[in-house]
Each structure stands twice: as structure tokens, then as C-alpha cells.
Specification:
Helix content is about 25%, strand content about 20%. By secondary structure, it is an alpha+beta fold. It has one domain (about 20-180). It is globular and about 50 Å long.
Amino acid sequence: MDVPLGRGSGKSSPQPQTMRSYIELLTDCYQLLVLYFWRPGSGSSDLSRDKKLYFADPLLHTLALSGAPGLASDPAELVENLVALLRAVTPRDELADAFNDPSALHVWGTSSGGEIDFVCGSRRQAVAVEVAYQRSPDRRKAAALPKVFPGRPCIMVTRDALEWHERYVLVPAALFPWALA
């Protein structure tokens, strides 16, 4: 993210603008939500790993993807983006850093190189949330969530499946905001 963007004119050096400065500006304006990977056994995020970015406005999401060659808006991506925003609810005293460093929302990197979309809440009471916006989501992934987070609630947000299992729940995306209340 620290690679300089743009070039100076003539013999001048490159402009100091970086992707990081653009992202920080957009997070300060509450237009981008930056999620960091959860560092197990620590009270901090893993700042050295890649980050996930979510748009605060679906219009920005659509515009950002519409201008990029080879990219198109995908309903599953929009649902994941919405789930990120719904789970980014932050206490008022931490609101200033809510989009730049959300303390109660992370991404989990699995040992096999995969990821769990969201780890929500405080570290001691975190809830795992995986978004699989499909008609027939892979229930093996839903069943694997409790193995990574034993004894904690595990939710898979789906397109239309509603199922209650002993160790995890499948909830349709349309019902997920209601379930948060």
C-alpha cells in the first residue's frame, strides 16, 4: 500500500500520494471499512497481513467495480459487504476509528490458507460469520466453523437456506439483519 502513485512532471520525483493515503482518506470519510486479520492469542490485529476493504455505500462499490476491466458487480460480494457493515457496529466512544480500525470485527486466516469472512465481537466472546450467498452452500464449511471456534456461535449467511444445527446456523441474507436485533 505504500507504493507511490502518479509521476511528477519532467525531472521531479514521483508524487508522495500512496494507495494507503487514499484508503485512509476514504476511511476518515466513512466510505471504506478496513478489516484486519485476527491475531490469535493476542489483543491486537495482525497489521502485517493483507487487509480486506469494504465500501460503506453500495453505490461506491458498484462504481468502483464498473470502471475496472474484467470486474463486474456480484450479488454475493454485495451481501458480504452488507454483512461487514452490519457487524461493524461500534461503541460511540470508539466511533472515530470505527472504519479505520474496527476493534470488534476481523477476518480469520485458517492454517490451510483459507479465511473465515468475519470474527465479530470481543475476543473472548467472538462469533464466526461466513458468507456463502449461494442456493446450495457447502455445509462442510459451516460444519468446520465450530472446529475453529469451539463453544462459540457460528453463522453461515446464505442465499435462502435456513437451518439450525447443534453447532452452527444457516441464515438467509434477507433475515440476517433481523436476526442481529
